[in-house]
Amino acid sequence: MKTALQQHREIAAYLRTAIHRGEFPPGDPLPSEAQLCEQFHSSRGPVRQAMATLRSEGLISSGRGRRTIVLDTVPTQSFDGVISYSEWCRQSGFEPGQVTQSVTRHQAGPVLAAGLEIEPTDQVVTVFRLRLLNGAPAMVERLNYPLDVGRHVLLFDTDSGSIYQHLLESGVDVNNATRTIDAVGADPEDARLLEVPEGTPLLRVRRRAFTSEGSPIEFSDDRYLQGTASFTLNTVRGNPSPLSMVSP
Description:
Blueprint: H1 4-20, H2 33-40, H3 44-56, H4 79-83, H5 85-91, E1 96-107, H6 109-116, E2 123-133, E3 136-146, H7 147-154, H8 163-169, E4 176-185, H9 188-194, E5 201-210, E6 216-225
Antiparallel strand pairs: 1-2, 2-3, 3-6, 4-5, 5-6
């Protein structure tokens, strides 16, 4: 007999797939709790948990006092796709690539020390790479790790693929991440690598990744060529949004 957790996941997966396939277009109501309970031979608990999962993904409305409806079907992104450029490319149907410019070990200094919550004199490992999308320049990547994490990177061929996957295989605990998104002009180094004029607007994504205990293990700065990437988020009135607008 299936557990409540198994039922919740099965119901959520069914509805998610049906929404992405267009079986429930935006604006259409989903089956009622009673219908889903009957279809999956389930109690209301797993059905409500599945609905809560889809609401957190921005796929459906809150349904308070009315039938739950499908929102604009924005594709959700896995955690691996958030952290790993290589995985994001593959999930999007593109071929990732990279050309390493440098891998260095050095003192953190004040900016990296603040991002990694270490002392300015502590050692960090910085990886500077040009990332490719189907063989063309797409993004300039600057990854920074405290030495206890970066030591795994020093032993890795950074032109061979995903650093994130290598860290996971090395036993590094990567549990959650925050992203700050803004725009900057291409500096001389970015412009040369991305083959654009200096000052060209770039989409900058600064990311901090943490262990399950809340310790920062990565502080990165990714700068995307315009037209390469965009960000879309569904929000529902009455529900908290994972997106925050903050001043610089």
